[in-house]
Design goal:
Helices cover about 35% and strands about 25% of the residues. It contains ten helices and 18 strands. The strands form five sheets. Strands 1-2-4-3-5-16-6-15 form an eight-stranded mixed beta sheet, with helices on both faces. Helix 1 packs antiparallel against helix 10 and helix 6 runs antiparallel to helix 7. The model has no long low-confidence stretch (mean pLDDT about 95).
């Protein structure tokens, strides 16, 4: 099985798949067009599959014929888009208000390419490959329901890749960025309601001003972040929404705030939640207000198994991509629900850089001008296929 040669022959098809998917961006866990398209591709290849998450998620299985039994390795791609109106200068632009601004269309196309390579060579596979096409990575999280519906049953290891420009220190396309530990931060969110007493703006002494209290809470939370956590323990706390008031001469009854937090340590994660509520509670008590607080535990920390990370590196070297391997310098403070798969079985998640310069600037993920260098698609498909092949049939000198 000459994986690199087969992937190169698929390059034009990979681009077509990706552009077709790019034109039909869908959100969350409701991906009827996207899922139908992927199901059609799998059917043409003769690869059996089942659907999950109300038909939007897909799990296909390639059963190797090289040996009876054997292990099962999973390869995962996310398929959902973002509620962003596209401004990228491409002739296959999405219509409407949604856009594949995070590369999930490319992830899906490259997994289809790996599926084609592995299925064509299944006579030489000593085990099985599960292909997980997942909805809802951006929101609300499609990994958990797929796990609950059995996507990982019988799976011994799992791998996935992310394209784009996530590694800001890597300025060229085609680099394979791998971590032997933490890859991305956890993501949690919180909602706060500060309840005061309304009054006319001319009589603030008759009020308990929730806007003033909210300002003190915001300052307290940001001071907490700056003074209670080590500079060597990365923490991000962002209050991104503040809502309150109806007129410029009315002190309102309440103010609502929403924000998110990110960290790389479970104890730090729990401390953040506790300290935000403590700051909120103490501030409201000091000023005579009351509050409601909801902390929503969201995506976990994405961590690679060191042995599985080494397997990714070995696969890259087997494909003569050794010069393109980059050790991930530090975890990214973004988050991924690939974390839930990696919590269940050993595996690795890595980055494949794909950058397009527009007037000297690269527009990153979640930007309306986000673009991908399509020339790396065959490399991504080859790497996924080689990882699966090496896992099922380890090289003698591995």
């Amino acid at each position: 099985m000459d994986v690199k040669k087969q992937a190169g022959a698929l390059q034009d098809q990979l681009v077509r798949w990706r552009r077709d998917l790019h034109r039909i961006p869908e959100l969350g866990c409701d991906l009827p067009q996207t899922s139908k398209y992927v199901q059609g591709c799998l059917s043409q290849m003769g690869i059996p599959f089942v659907t999950m998450v109300k038909g939007s998620g897909i799990v296909a299985t390639i059963r190797g014929e090289g040996a009876a039994g054997g292990k099962t390795v999973a390869l995962r791609a996310d398929m959902d888009a973002l509620p962003i109106k596209e401004e990228a200068p491409v002739d296959f632009k999405a219509e409407g208000g949604n856009m594949h601004a995070c590369g999930h269309d490319a992830h899906t196309a490259m997994l289809l390419g790996a599926a084609k390579i592995l299925n064509d060579g299944k006579a030489h596979l000593n085990g099985s490959v599960k292909l997980i096409f997942q909805p809802g990575e951006e929101n609300p999280g499609g990994a958990k329901p797929m796990i609950q519906e059995g996507a990982l049953e019988g799976v011994d290891a799992i791998f996935g890749q992310h394209v784009g420009a996530l590694q800001s220190d890597v300025k060229v396309s085609g680099k394979i960025v791998v971590s032997r530990g933490a890859v991305m931060a956890c993501r949690d969110s919180f909602k706060i309601k500060i309840i005061g007493r309304g009054a006319h703006s001319s009589s603030p002494h008759l009020s308990v001003d929730p806007i003033a209290v909210a300002a003190q809470v915001i300052n307290g939370v940001y001071m907490m972040k700056a003074r209670e956590f080590s500079a060597l323990d990365p923490v991000v706390i962002s209050i991104c929404m503040v809502r309150g008031g109806t007129a410029n001469n009315i002190i309102p009854m309440s103010v609502e705030m929403e924000g998110s937090t990110r960290s790389l340590n479970q104890q730090t994660r729990e401390k953040i939640a506790a300290r935000i509520e403590a700051v909120l509670k103490n501030t409201c008590e000091a000023y005579g207000a009351s509050y409601q607080f909801d902390f929503l535990w969201d995506y976990d920390i994405t961590k690679n198994n060191p042995d599985m990370a080494d397997l990714v590196i070995r696969a890259a070297k087997d494909l003569a991509f050794g010069d393109d391997i980059v050790q991930q310098a530090s975890p990214i403070m973004g988050s991924e629900d690939m974390s839930f798969f990696l919590n269940k079985v050993p595996g690795a998640y890595y980055f494949l850089t794909s950058l397009v310069f527009q007037n000297g600037e690269v527009f990153g993920h979640h930007h309306p001008k986000f673009m991908l260098d399509e020339s790396i698609f065959s490399k991504g498909a080859a790497l996924l296929a080689q990882i699966a092949k090496n896992y099922l049939d380890p090289p003698a000198n591995a």
